[in-house]
């Protein structure tokens, strides 16, 4: 089985994140890049499926040069090889054009199963899996907390507000995972050392037959009109307990319609 | 001259830090308070191959040397484990794996190294005796040949990690100290199967209540006609000194690394508090009386690390490393103590509360100045062996 995991590098949530003043895109140089946490779960799931059913795990990352660190991390966990889609023309692509660029690349490299994290910690649109499925004409099985493969079929447990749905489809398919699905492994010593020697193929937009007029900040369907630094948090409400703390707290919560 | 660490050592730094990132300072505080082994971290380190770093690849290990172990120990210690708990890492990956990889017979290597690589088998090291600490060559635990076996009698003290160890690296005398010429002659190192010896009633131990570093107990150990096969000798009979130096030098290096990591934790904790705590309407770190000791610790840490890595590098190349190992040990334990003391002063009265890690860091930094070798003995070595000054003893 040929499994492709889409992995994104995101700015470290522990550091201060900024938008660029020139084109209002995320300033990816300003913050340390780390692997998007949910992508680790996606890699882990791909590795478990490979261990159970055989095949190969390829990491696919669209991002600037420095995203290679993130690719190496996924390879150190045990993925077999990687494709890095990197081109200045892709800078500032929104979710729609990113899904186009990734879909074009996936068509080139081929797949039986694509696994993604259900969202990234930077943009948090959570739409990529659905967009990819649409563009590639494959079933989408999103928000999975359990994945099972049998023959050419795939079944996932999809997390919902009321519990879960059982969703079945045939391969090839697109799956997005939630963090409950597994516990990602740490890269082992041998994994880290081996990752340095694994193949990372670099694709530019021409290699993936991506039309430059459909990607990049200039061609984005969504536009950042303006942005401002969030105002500092206002002082909270202090409830002083003079024997009636419980009542006062309940009154406060009721006044805010929390209860 | 290139100061970049080799890729293998960088991988170790990152890998250990990734494992330890999920275990915060509170975790290590709890382990110490509950006097319990850090099982969770240990299991992760075993799974990732971090315990078998120095085991040759043909036995399933990482095929690395003392430099990688040094970096690993430092990273573990600096994550919050500090000097006391990072010692856990020295017992097996250091004493066991490094020694057997270099001096084990083919049979010993085949029997032990795969288990050490997988983190399934642990070791401890027994040298110190009630009447022979600094003067280690004066040990009296004796091993007498009896057919194809040796019979061992005597007593050891402070032996750390006996409880979990399957194998003990036991240093004995096959020629009594008084008759040995030179004094380094007549030492023999054995591999002793601890659970078997305990079951046979030939080995017993009793933990020593201690001031800190309670994640691993240290023990009195008694040998009562302990019988071991002649094949359990590591290296040559009477010529155990060769093996012993190759245990003691890495031990110095690794415990220097654990002390250095402890210094890094103490500095981090001290600096954070100096930035955040306000007295007289300003952060206490803006007072130079608080800032300078922390700054000096930073300088000491960086200086100690240079000699530390150099000592490991020399050992891995089979070059003499005694001077560097001793200097690194001296510098790192001084840095750790000074760092803990500076963090203590910075915390004011709160340092004395067990809700802060400072008391633990201070207690654990203190051991570094006496174990595995005292500061005075390190200075004696530099004075007599390096500077050629006359011996006082
Ligand atoms: C927590 C802990 C764990 C340990 N774990 C182990 C272990 O796993 N295995 C093991 O074998 N040992 C272990 N040890 C023992 C340790 O190696 C010894 O305690 C150490 O070598 C010092 O020996 P000693 O305690 O007998 O001190 P002593 O040799 O009695 O020294 C007492 C003091 O006299 C000073 N002194 C002695 N001679 C001179 C001199 N000529 N010049 C100047 N000063 C001198 C010393 O520096 C020291 O300050 C451990 C110790 C501790 C505290």
From TrEMBL, chain A:
Q: Does the keyword Electron transport apply?
A: yes
Residue ranges spanning the membrane: these are: none
List the GO molecular function terms.
electron transfer activity
**Which keywords fit this entry according to its UniProt record?**
Electron transport, Transport
Q: Name one GO cellular component term.
A: cytosol
Q: How does it assemble?
A: Heterodimer of an alpha and a beta subunit.
Reported function: The electron transfer flavoprotein serves as a specific electron acceptor for other dehydrogenases. It transfers the electrons to the main respiratory chain via ETF-ubiquinone oxidoreductase (ETF dehydrogenase).
Report what the protein is called.
Electron transfer flavoprotein subunit beta
Automatic annotation (TrEMBL), chain B:
Lineage of producing organism: Bacteria, Bacillati, Actinomycetota, Actinomycetes, Streptosporangiales
Q: Which organism is it from?
A: Acrocarpospora corrugata
Q: Which UniProt keywords apply?
A: FAD, Flavoprotein, Oxidoreductase
Residue limits of the Acyl-CoA dehydrogenase/oxidase C-terminal domain? 242-386
InterPro entries linked to this entry: Acyl-CoA_Oxase/DH_mid-dom (IPR006091), Acyl-CoA_Oxase/DH_mid-dom_sf (IPR046373), AcylCo_DH-like_C (IPR036250), AcylCo_DH/oxidase_C (IPR009075), AcylCoA_DH/ox_N (IPR013786), AcylCoA_DH/ox_N_sf (IPR037069), AcylCoA_DH/oxidase_NM_dom_sf (IPR009100)
Protein name listed in UniProt: Acyl-CoA dehydrogenase
**Signal peptide region:** none
GO molecular function terms listed in the Swiss-Prot or TrEMBL record: acyl-CoA dehydrogenase activity; flavin adenine dinucleotide binding
Q: What family does this chain come from, according to its entry?
A: Belongs to the acyl-CoA dehydrogenase family.
Where in this chain does the record put each Acyl-CoA oxidase/dehydrogenase middle domain? 124-225
Q: Where is the Acyl-CoA dehydrogenase/oxidase N-terminal domain?
A: 7-120
Q: Which CDD domains match?
A: ACAD (cd00567)
Cofactors needed by this protein, per the record, are:
FAD
């Amino acid at each position: 089985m040929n499994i492709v995991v889409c992995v994104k590098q995101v700015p470290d949530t522990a550091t201060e994140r900024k938008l660029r003043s020139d084109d209002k895109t995320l300033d990816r140089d300003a913050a340390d890049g780390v692997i998007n946490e949910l992508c680790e779960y996606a890699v882990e799931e791909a590795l478990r499926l490979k261990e159970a059913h055989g095949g190969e795990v390829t990491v696919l990352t669209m991002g600037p040069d420095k995203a290679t660190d993130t690719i190496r991390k996924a390879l150190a966990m045990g993925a077999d090889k990687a494709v890095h889609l990197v081109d200045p023309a892709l800078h500032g692509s929104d979710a729609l054009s990113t899904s186009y660029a990734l879909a074009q690349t996936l068509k080139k490299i081929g797949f039986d199963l694509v696994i993604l994290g259900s969202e990234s910690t930077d943009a948090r649109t959570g739409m990529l899996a659905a967009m990819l499925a649409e563009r590639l004409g494959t079933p989408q099985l999103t928000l999975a907390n359990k994945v099972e493969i049998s023959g050419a079929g795939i079944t996932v447990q999809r997390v919902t507000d009321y519990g879960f749905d059982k969703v079945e489809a045939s391969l090839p398919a697109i799956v997005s995972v939630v963090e409950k699905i597994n516990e990602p492994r740490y890269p082992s010593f041998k994994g880290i050392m081996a990752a340095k020697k694994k193949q990372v193929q670099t694709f530019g937009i021409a290699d993936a037959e991506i039309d430059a007029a459909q990607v990049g900040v200039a061609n984005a369907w969504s536009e950042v009109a303006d942005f401002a630094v969030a105002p500092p948090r206002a002082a909270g409400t202090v409830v002083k307990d003079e024997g009636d703390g419980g009542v006062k707290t309940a009154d406060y919560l009721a006044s805010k319609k929390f209860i | 001259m290139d100061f970049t660490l080799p890729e293998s050592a960088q991988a170790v730094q990152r890998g250990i830090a990734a494992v330890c990132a999920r275990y915060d300072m509170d975790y290590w505080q709890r382990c110490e308070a509950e006097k319990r082994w850090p099982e969770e971290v240990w299991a992760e380190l075993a799974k990732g191959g971090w315990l078998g770093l120095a085991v040759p690849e043909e036995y399933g290990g990482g095929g690395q040397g003392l430099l990688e172990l040094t970096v690993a120990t430092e990273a573990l210690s600096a994550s919050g484990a500090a000097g006391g708990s990072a010692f856990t890492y020295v017992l097996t990956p250091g004493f066991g794996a490094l020694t057997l990889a270099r001096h084990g017979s083919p049979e010993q290597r085949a029997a032990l190294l795969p288990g050490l690589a997988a983190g399934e088998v642990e070791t401890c090291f027994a040298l110190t005796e009630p009447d022979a600490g600094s003067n280690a060559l004066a040990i009296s635990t004796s091993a007498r040949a009896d057919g194809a076996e040796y019979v061992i009698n005597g007593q050891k003290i402070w032996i750390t990690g006996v409880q979990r160890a399957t194998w003990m690296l036991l240093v004995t005398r096959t020629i009594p100290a008084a008759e040995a010429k030179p004094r380094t002659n007549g030492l023999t190192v054995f591999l002793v199967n601890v659970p078997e010896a305990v079951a046979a009633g030939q080995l017993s131990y009793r933990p020593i209540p201690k001031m800190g570093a309670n994640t691993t107990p240290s023990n009195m150990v008694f040998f009562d006609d302990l019988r071991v096969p002649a094949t359990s000798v590591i290296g040559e009979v009477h010529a155990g000194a060769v093996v012993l130096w190759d245990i003691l030098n890495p031990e110095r290096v690794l415990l220097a690394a654990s002390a250095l990591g402890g210094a890094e934790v103490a500095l981090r904790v001290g600096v954070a508090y100096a930035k955040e705590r306000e007295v007289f309407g300003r952060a206490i770190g803006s007072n130079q009386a608080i800032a300078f000791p922390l700054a000096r610790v930073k300088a000491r840490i960086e200086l100690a690390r240079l000699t530390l890595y150099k000592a490991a590098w020399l050992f891995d190349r089979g070059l003499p490393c005694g001077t560097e190992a001793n200097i690194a040990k001296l510098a790192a334990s001084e840095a750790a103590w000074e760092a803990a003391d500076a963090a203590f002063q910075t915390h004011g009265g709160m340092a004395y509360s067990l809700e802060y890690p400072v008391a633990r860091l201070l207690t654990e930094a203190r051991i570094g100045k006496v174990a595995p070798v005292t500061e005075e003995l390190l200075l004696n070595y530099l004075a007599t062996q390096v500077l050629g000054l006359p011996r006082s003893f």
